[in-house]
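Q: A reviewer asked whether we had any structural model of the full assembly, not just the individual parts. We don't, so I'm hoping you can provide one. Inputs are below.
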Amino acid sequence: MNYVILGNSTAAVGCIEGIRSVDPQGTITVISDEPYAAYSRPLISYLLYGSTTEEKMRIRPDDFYEKMKVKTFLGKKAVRVDSGRKAVALDSGESIPFDRLLIATGSRPFVPPMQGLDKVGKKFSFLTLNDAKALESVLTSESRVLIVGAGLIGLKCAEGIRGRVGSITVVDLADRILPSILDEAGSEMVKKHIGQNGIKFLLGDSVAEFEENRAHLKSGGAVDFDVLVVAVGVRPNTELAAEAGCEVGRGVAIDEASATSVPGIYAAGDCCECRDITTGQRRVLAILPNAYLQGETAGVNMAGGEKSFANAVPMNAIGFFGLHVLTAGSYDGEEIVETKPGVYKKLIVKDHLLKGFILIGEIARAGIYTSLIREQTPLDTVDFELLKQKPQLMAFTAERRAVKLGGAK
Amino acid sequence: MKRVYVNEEWCLGCHLCEYNCAFAATGETDMAKALKGVTIHPKIQIEENNRISFAVSCRHCDDPICVKSCIAGAISKTDGVVHVDKSKCVGCYTCILVCPYGAVMPAPDGHAIQKCELCTDNACGEPACVKGCPNGAIVFEER
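A: Here is a predicted structure for the entire assembly that you could use as a starting point for your response.
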């Protein structure tokens, strides 16, 4: 069997490990336009912060590709997938044949049209290791940095570089930060904490026009800057899949086996859309655990095994300047809210299921809540009053605990 | 593979497992000296409510979701032990977000996580929590 993987990040690593759990012999080829062994994209902010290194960012040991018997084409770009001839064309002119293909092409920064953006010399995205290196190369202790976008990427970038620049201003059209994972109260709490660490926010505002070192805002003000980071959002890289004939919505459509609509072609990670079990809706769940699980599922199935990943949920663990934020699921339902100094906790219940949660500042054992969401545990089978107090296994029946902790079948 | 299992009905709620866990991590020889006046950060934790109590520590799952979810590639499983490489861990707490047992926790310094590694990360040789349990409420065996 001849396996080809487009992309070389978490989904690809999951796929390789999935294939090798079934098929120790088949030929695996990985193609990526990035010239690096698989590294953690989310760690680029930690790299600039100084809490990791380029070597430590690699998500597998140095001998991973050799041990897994993987042939790599790194620094080469796949430009076309011919699903009829079953071959991938590279920008170098080579053609790589496949029996089973994984499309794990990730996403790219979305840069909306902004007037005058072409006049800005030092402008960056913040998604890849090369982005981080390019940004780092221009930073000085005097730099005035303007970040457009108060989402996960923009704010992790802000944290990562805060200690090595003069000032950071974050502007966002939305009137609050991190709207993809937080409610209003949570946003406010995290914003206050980040603000206390020297980041200035201009929310509910946007850039009307750029000059080389000045952003004129819609509200009428202006921000002078030396370095611009655009972190408005990302878009899935779906073009190769679409040309190959795969069904594509917002992302490449995959089922619970990570299969696309074209036989023999699978997809995983940030380029995909899948079903979020907390809402039943299909969406792009661009989070690292999903990328691994989808990739691993694809790999097992590509190799002729059977694996299903049927309980994808949104979830994020993120921290800013020591304040940790853990969230999961969706937020439509009855709310149970608890606040105390430095802590915000919200559980969301609907249809007798835990659908989502937001934990800020007090995050111990959050995975017990996440497991209730992922396993869709009916809340009348657990002691939910205990769970409201804190995540604990005591809330399960003695029989369930005997399975969880006692090895009972 | 041998694992730490809980016999809930035998647990006295004495918390000795927590102290033995914390003591094993110090590498010291005298428990009283090592732990006196110290806030302990054990990797095994007692839950108690009414008259029920039991210890919870890493299950070293067959299909460990912490390993698969780790954004830094810092958690791996070798020879039945789920291990965290603290030099790679950046303390994002994704593993805490996904562990269904609540068995992963921040390390005391907050910059990484910690979890039970069956005392393979210290000189104890066998799980200290099990060795010190006075009533056989936690055992290390095949089941």
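A: Points you may want to mention in the reply: The first strand of chain A starts at residue 2 and ends at 6. The longest helix of chain A spans residues 288-302.
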